[in-house]
Amino acid sequence: MALRFFNTMTRIKEEFRPIEDGHVRMYTCGPTLYDFSHIGNMRTFIFEDILRRYLKYKGYKVTQVMNLTDIDDKTIKASKEQGLSLSEYTEKYKKAFFEDLDTLNFDRAEDYPAATEHIPEMVAMVRKLLDKGYAYEAGGDIYFRISKKDDYGKLSHMKLEDLRAGASERVATDEYEKESATDFALWKGWDEADGDVFWETEIGKGRPGWHIECSAMSMKYLGEHFDIHTGGVDNIFPHHENEIAQSEATTGKPFANYWLHSAHLKLKEDKMSKSLGNFYILRDILDKGYSPVAIRYLLISTHYRMQLVFSFDILDAAREGVKRYNDFIDNLSDVTSDKNGGEASGLIDKAKTDFVEALDDDLNISEAFGVVFNIIRDINRLKAENKLSMAEADAVLEAMDGFDTVFGLRKKDDAALDSEIEAMIEARNQARKDKNWSEADRIRDELLAQGIILEDTPTGVKWKRKM
Ligand code: AMP
Ligand code: ZN
């Protein structure tokens, strides 16, 4: 079976065919830099990371663009409240965002364009929409006329005639509910609340609306018609609906072919969100002593279209799961036999086939983990029965490395770190030989502080990462 994605546009699983052979161009809506990203945001970003990694596993070249919303209603309001310039304010959250990506072992996208650096592209789009009659001015703002776009509502499956739409109904805010679908702001004329946040342009003094940011930046970096557009389900309406309307009205071409949306991370019954005040940021959870890899595992291991209710109990379970996964890989080096048991290669081949079959089915990651944990169980059995040779263990390790290019649970730089840890263990061994116990203890404590646990065994010192 070929790779299939559930397309929000058609509400069915469709076979994936990129526009350009072997190359996938995808746009992933990025963070609004008005606060730290919470782990709900991270769930959506990490689903996009898995999508990107799996496309690469399948051999595609991937061009991924993720925007940084460094101007919108929320960032302006918050920067004013703190008496900071907009860029001073957003810089802090931009830095934190990239730190979080590294902590959670993200594969970086090709581009992270910031909205404030693409105002001319947005102005050019609004200009075109005005010229084509899709946009009009009212009260100093410029609005998109949804009644002129016959298929408005096709992504969220709303019918235009069901909306109380019309030129008399307009919404100037960036976010609103379906019930108030009306003409929306492409460009917001300057008012006092904006302070020094404005651009003098050919369409007036002001700033862009949120939706136009993503249309202008996606088309600049990926072309007018590209393959995949993603976000969380809350982006479907109005954000993505509006992106489609303004982009297709500008170019007269279809915009993105596949629309993938991840379900929410919830806290009890509610969506995790800043406006509800019920959220955890990554740092809160790390401070409680959980490792980034356990958080990553938790966020990726539920299928992206299923809601995930966060709790520390399921994080504890994730910690156990990831420990089993990592212990298995670490302990493959224990095998010392030269004699092939003969069963491993068949298990590996089957696991590789089943892994692809699972992920080809709209990224069924729970099934893919099922495949991996089955092979872990089977290989552990072979090990216990002395039916695994070093060569077979190497082949298992190679397969696990391949699976991990998608899961990303083992840091890329682990190998480099390993040699540093081993050098410290060697220094500790020497200190012990020299009966320099305080130095030996100091090294042990330093390693512990880095999350490395030492075990003194009859065959020498072994180490593992604290999960
Ligand atoms: P924002 O920083 O608010 O612009 O959101 C960034 C991304 O996080 C968007 O794709 C949202 O759809 C997504 N998102 C927001 N809240 C959640 C949540 N509770 N669970 C999953 N994704 C979310
Ligand atoms: Zn967007």
How would you characterize the overall build of this protein?
The protein is of the alpha/beta class. The protein has 14 helices and 17 strands. Strands 5, 6, 7, 8, 9 and 10 form a 6-stranded mixed sheet that branches. β16 and β17 form a beta hairpin. The longest helix has 20 residues, at 312-331. It is globular, with a radius of gyration of 26 Å. Bound molecules: adenosine monophosphate and zinc ion (ZN). Adenosine monophosphate binds at residues 29, 31-32, 40-41, 43-44, 69, 231-232, 234-235, 262, 264-265, 271-273. Residues 29, 67, 214, 239 line the site of zinc ion (ZN).
Brief descriptors of the model:
single chain, 467 residues, alpha/beta, six-stranded mixed sheet, four-stranded parallel sheet, 17 strands, binds adenosine monophosphate, binds zinc ion
State the helix count.
Answer: 14
The count of DSSP E runs of length 2 or more, i.e. the number of strands, is 17
Unreliable stretches: none
Bound small-molecule species:
adenosine monophosphate, zinc ion
Structural class: alpha/beta
Shape: globular
Helix percentage range:
40-55%
Strand residue content: 15-25%
Q: Mean pLDDT, nearest integer?
A: 93
